Amino acid sequence: MDTRLLDILVCPLCKGPLVYNKAAQELICKGDKLAYPIRDDIPIMWADQARELNSADMAANTNGPSA
């Protein structure tokens, strides 16, 4: 994932920052508790394609942005 792209992408719902989860290939919005998938290096920023995060997911993603 291009770090320049990560700097400009925000959550389409709340406009908040996103955290890159390299292992899961997802962009995490902590505010909305959603994970947007990345497919073939392309972030899919549609809310209906996002996965809702549970408490365990949120705890696993407490780190800051990573590249």
TrEMBL record:
Gene3D superfamilies: 2.20.25.10. GO terms for cellular component: cytosol. Pfam families: Trm112p. Coiled coil: none annotated. It comes from the Bacteria. InterPro entries: Trm112-like (IPR005651). Belongs to the UPF0434 family. In the N-terminal section; belongs to the LpxK family. PANTHER family: PROTEIN PREY, MITOCHONDRIAL, ZGC:162634. This is UPF0434 protein E2I14_05770. It comes from Sapientia aquatica.
